[in-house]
């Protein structure tokens, strides 16, 4: 057994809590993953995992090794990768997590341009509106919108996403155009339930803040569907600006309450705080910064 393979199998098993999920992450069989860990334990004459029929758990020695091994493997991968990349350019697998609508509307184009610049990098983009666990799921990087809530993550802020209040011209022919946030109580409101944090709609003007709790007749966990419902003329919607650009440009949606400022949220590239960034991950983050600038 190669020592590095044993360490990789151990780390993957310890982080996922399962030989099966570890094997899926590593791209090898369940049996081989278990064999690598067992051979590592034999080599160092120490039990690292307690095995049951349902799950595995760490022994004290396993906890100690898990605290050190990921950084060691990251540094080794970075060192070997830099030697190879100096000769043939960046290569290897990048597993990326991102919100569904943002990934479909904007990130896909960013990654397409990045792939053209680095054709030897394999990109595995997984779109999910839930905040996945980067360590357990084996992601190198995530793009997230909103404030970070985990001390185990580091981030690089790329830009801001602003929410805009919109309606269709057809809707505004049937209902009076709101002049202030209080007028929204007379309108059907389309609520994007994916928005994290305070569910109220927030507006600012001249340093004063106004909040409005929208009616929940129309709710959906998709900014794109919220926009499409507004295009259908069935209500007013508060949507992130990245899904509205074309609709605002062609006049199919009209901005409302423009004299009021709406909430901004950061968009960030997120990665594990305890890991050493590989060159390909750093390259993608730097490329994303260039794109946003």
UniProtKB/TrEMBL annotation:
<comment type="similarity">
    <text>Belongs to the LysR transcriptional regulatory family.</text>
</comment>
<dbReference type="GO" id="GO:0003700">
    <property type="term" value="F:DNA-binding transcription factor activity"/>
</dbReference>
<dbReference type="GO" id="GO:0006351">
    <property type="term" value="P:DNA-templated transcription"/>
</dbReference>
<protein>
    <submittedName>
        <fullName>LysR family transcriptional regulator</fullName>
    </submittedName>
</protein>
<feature type="domain" description="HTH lysR-type">
    <location>
        <begin position="1"/>
        <end position="59"/>
    </location>
</feature>
<dbReference type="Pfam" id="PF03466">
    <property type="entry name" value="LysR_substrate"/>
</dbReference>
<dbReference type="InterPro" id="IPR036390">
    <property type="entry name" value="WH_DNA-bd_sf"/>
</dbReference>
<dbReference type="InterPro" id="IPR000847">
    <property type="entry name" value="LysR_HTH_N"/>
</dbReference>
<dbReference type="InterPro" id="IPR036388">
    <property type="entry name" value="WH-like_DNA-bd_sf"/>
</dbReference>
<keyword id="KW-0805">Transcription regulation</keyword>
<keyword id="KW-0804">Transcription</keyword>
<dbReference type="Pfam" id="PF00126">
    <property type="entry name" value="HTH_1"/>
</dbReference>
<dbReference type="InterPro" id="IPR058163">
    <property type="entry name" value="LysR-type_TF_proteobact-type"/>
</dbReference>
<dbReference type="InterPro" id="IPR005119">
    <property type="entry name" value="LysR_subst-bd"/>
</dbReference>
<dbReference type="GO" id="GO:0043565">
    <property type="term" value="F:sequence-specific DNA binding"/>
</dbReference>
<keyword id="KW-0238">DNA-binding</keyword>
């Amino acid at each position: 057994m190669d020592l590095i393979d044993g360490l990789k199998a151990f780390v993957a098993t310890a982080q996922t809590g399962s030989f099966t999920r570890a094997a899926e992450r590593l791209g090898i069989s369940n049996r081989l993953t278990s064999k690598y860990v067992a051979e590592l334990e034999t080599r160092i004459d120490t039990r690292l995992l307690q095995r049951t029929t349902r799950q595995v758990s760490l022994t004290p020695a396993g906890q100690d090794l898990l605290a050190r091994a990921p950084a060691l493997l990251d540094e080794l991968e970075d060192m070997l990768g830099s030697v190879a990349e100096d000769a043939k350019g960046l290569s290897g697998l990048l597993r990326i997590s991102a919100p569904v609508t943002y990934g479909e509307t904007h990130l896909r184009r960013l990654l397409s341009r990045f792939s053209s610049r680095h054709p030897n990098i394999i990109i595995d983009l997984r779109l999910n509106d839930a905040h996945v666990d980067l360590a357990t799921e084996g992601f190198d990087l995530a793009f997230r919108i909103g404030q970070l809530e985990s001390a185990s993550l580091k981030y690089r802020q790329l830009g801001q996403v602003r929410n805009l209040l919109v309606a269709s011209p057809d809707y505004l022919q049937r209902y009076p155009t709101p002049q202030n946030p209080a007028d929204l109580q007379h309108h059907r409101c389309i609520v994007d339930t994916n928005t994290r944090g305070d569910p109220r709609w927030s507006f600012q003007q001249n340093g004063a803040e106004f909040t409005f709790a929208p009616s929940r007749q129309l709710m959906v966990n998709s900014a794109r569907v919220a926009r499409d419902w507004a295009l259908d003329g069935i209500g007013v919607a508060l949507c992130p600006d990245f899904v509205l650009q074309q609709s605002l440009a062609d006049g199919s949606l009209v901005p409302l309450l423009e004299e009021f400022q709406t909430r901004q949220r950061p968009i960030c590239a997120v990665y594990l705080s305890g890991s050493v960034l590989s060159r390909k991950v750093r390259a993608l983050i730097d490329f994303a910064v260039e794109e946003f600038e």
